[in-house]
Specification:
Elements (H helix, E strand, L loop, with lengths): L3 E10 L2 E10 L7 E8 H6 L6 E5 L3 E4 L2 E6 L3 E6 L1 H7 L3 E5 L4 H14 L6 E3 L2
Parallel strand pairs: 6-9
Antiparallel strand pairs: 1-2, 2-3, 3-4, 4-5, 6-7, 7-8
Length: about 130
């Protein structure tokens, strides 16, 4: 079960922003796992790297795009990767459990909507 669920939101200009969802359990340097899902519109424009950036900490895996399905509820995330991303992450289907209160769940839903803007892979269930 994830011990931490963190939201990242920064705005550089009206059209340039960074949003993210970070899930962590334990110390990643001592067997724990942290998975971060972020999107930076300046990277989409400038570098040719598009889509949500998935990072398994500590910088063990970094992959852009490749998410086929990202299903969120107030108690669990299920992320299914395509073949390319699966080869990099080492998992086809990632499941992370957590416990969120209703206020935090509302914030997570709002950030996820921004994170996956224009992408049909996002599914949210109550």
């Amino acid at each position: 079960m994830a011990e931490s669920v963190e939201l990242v939101s920064e705005s550089y200009a009206p059209e340039d922003w960074l949003v993210g969802l970070h899930f962590g359990e334990g110390d990643p340097e001592a067997g724990g796992q942290h998975w971060n899902f972020t999107r930076d519109t300046t990277e989409d424009d400038d570098s040719g790297l598009t889509g949500v950036c998935t990072v398994k900490e500590i910088q063990e895996v970094t992959v852009y795009g490749g998410i086929e399905r990202f299903e969120l509820s107030s108690s669990r995330l299920v992320c299914q990767f395509d073949e390319r991303a699966s080869a990099k992450t080492g998992v086809k289907r990632l499941s992370i459990s957590y416990a969120l209160d209703s206020e935090t769940w509302a914030k997570v839903k709002a950030e996820a909507t921004r994170l996956f803007e224009g992408d049909s892979c996002l599914s949210m269930v109550e």
